[in-house]
Design a protein that fits this description.
By secondary structure, the chain is of the alpha+beta class. The protein contains 13 helices and 22 strands. The chain folds into 3 domains: about 1-325, 3-Layer(aba) Sandwich (Peroxisomal Thiolase, Chain A, domain 1); about 335-355 and about 390-470, Beta Barrel (OB fold (Dihydrolipoamide Acetyltransferase, E2P)); about 355-390.
């Protein structure tokens, strides 16, 4: 049977208390806080990080397909799964596809992955889901939404096998964004919750349980998506699921995570699951998808992989609402746009996205970017391609106040890093305090959006202080 053999998640470092958001506009505040992606993060960069967590201990050369699920693709017309595959350094003959425009895109991609593996067209499929949904200022949506990513790797045998999969379709307006809309809109929530959400979730869940021959009382956990902190409890009661069986939606700590909500919740469950556990997964959005999983082999996190709990515990509070405004680029102002070349971006994709350097065959030194002449022993055209490490330590650094033609009160750290496994690279630091930077400090690489020169997203690697749990 097809099942999930690995999973991973990513939660941005930054959080904003909902009380801060309420005070900024003089409106009531929902309890808790929400996760906030940095200004250089989007759904694609978060999906890459979640995928890297998912693939710890896995053989990336065995992956035959990559599916990317999101409602907030960085491109309206360009596939993002191919960029993810390049950043993960997967095979060139990997099949890629984007699943978009629905909050249940992640489970739609999981069902498509299951079908592909069962049909024999793929051995294993990576499904990555991420969202960074825009919310209109001075509305409750700012407090309700959150940012994050999750990923699952599906293959035959082992892991958490999929015993049943069912779907129902239900056309009610619910939540939406038209092609020209910047912010999420919504229908009357009480009516949508009762007549679309609860009914669809209950119907799809019951069909899946019936197909799998599983009673609600036999479930170890029920993973049910929800756009608020309470409605999933109503849906659970309609399914006959008790509250102790219901998995936390993480709403109070992270917010509504869109397409990433179910993969992150499911990852949290699978990291703790025991052999024999049965798990119901129901994802709502213009209907509902339901899966019944049975854990044949526990997915114990391998060394080097961060768990959802570790991501939740390593966080940094934004000082105020103004910082959120800056992260979201909500203030219209003239910005410096660097010059760039699509031809150069294409030519150097292996160097910049998959991050390859070169090792001299004579002296063994690793260099980046790859030269023709070794900088150590001066051997010419005698280098071999080598994949660079993703961790290192600070060799030296500078704190630049002059960025993009303007002066910044808070400087941007630019670091020269000695990488594990050899090589030295010059990168900008993100998600860190400039005052904490020092020589010898351990750092790790993170995939980010560098800038949008020539009106396209220029993705590259930055570095950040090591988050606890690596």
């Amino acid at each position: 049977m097809v099942g999930i053999i690995a999973c991973g998640a990513y939660v941005p470092l930054h959080r904003l208390g909902r009380q801060e958001m309420g005070q900024a506009w003089g409106i009531p505040a929902v309890p808790g806080e929400r996760s906030v992606a940095n200004a250089d993060e989007d759904s694609l960069t978060m999906a890459v990080t979640a995928s890297l967590e998912c693939l710890v201990g896995q053989d990336p050369t065995s992956i035959d397909a990559v599916y990317f699920a999101t409602t907030t693709s960085p491109y309206a017309e360009k596939q993002c799964a191919s960029i993810i595959a390049s950043a993960l350094d997967l095979r060139k003959d990997v099949f890629t596809a984007d699943f978009t425009d629905s909050l249940r895109s992640a489970t739609a991609a999981m069902r498509a992955a299951r079908d592909a593996i069962e049909s024999g067209s793929a051995r294993s499929v990576l499904v990555a889901a991420a969202d960074c949904r825009p919310a209109e200022p001075e509305t409750m949506w700012e407090q309700l939404l959150g940012d994050g990513a999750g990923a699952v790797l599906l293959a035959k045998d082992g892991g958490a096998t999929i015993r049943a999969a069912k779907s129902v379709s239900n056309e009610m307006l619910g939540q939406w964004r038209r092609s020209g809309d910047r912010y999420v809109r919504a229908f009357e929530p009480k009516l949508e919750t009762e007549y679309a959400y609860v009914r669809s979730v209950a119907q799809a869940g019951k069909l899946a349980l019936q197909e799998a021959g599983v009673e609600p009382k036999d479930l170890a956990k029920a993973v049910i998506s929800a756009g608020d902190p309470r409605s999933h409890q109503t849906a659970a009661r309609a399914l006959g699921v008790e509250m102790p069986q219901l998995q936390d939606t993480l709403f109070l700590m992270l917010g509504g995570l869109g397409t990433a909500q179910v993969p992150i919740m499911l990852t949290s469950v699978l990291e703790m699951a025991k052999a024999g556990d049965k798990i119901l997964v129901v994802n709502h959005g213009d209907g509902a998808d339901a899966l019944v999983l049975e854990v044949a082999q526990p997915l114990t996190p391998p060394p080097g992989k961060r768990t959802v709990q570790q991501y939740m515990m390593t966080k940094k509070a934004l000082p105020n609402y103004d910082a959120y405004v800056a992260f979201r680029h909500l203030m219209d102002r003239e910005r410096f746009v660097p010059k760039t070349s699509p031809v150069t971006y294409w030519r150097d994709a292996k160097l910049e996205l998959a991050l390859y350097g070169a090792r001299c065959r004579k002296c063994g030194i690793v260099q980046y970017p790859p030269p023709r002449v070794c900088g150590e022993c001066y051997a010419k055209d005698d280098l071999e391609t080598v994949k660079l490490g993703r961790k290192g330590s600070v060799f030296t650094f500078t704190l630049d106040h002059l960025v993009g033609g303007g002066y910044m009160n808070v400087p941007v750290p630019r670091l020269v890093i000695d990488l594990e496994g050899g090589g030295r690279i010059f990168l900008e630091m993100t998600d860190g305090d400039p005052k904490d930077v020092k020589i010898g400090m351990p750092v790790e690489l993170t995939f980010r959006c560098l800038h949008e020169g020539t009106a396209f997203h220029n993705y590259y690697w930055k570095c950040q202080p090591v988050r606890v749990g690596a």
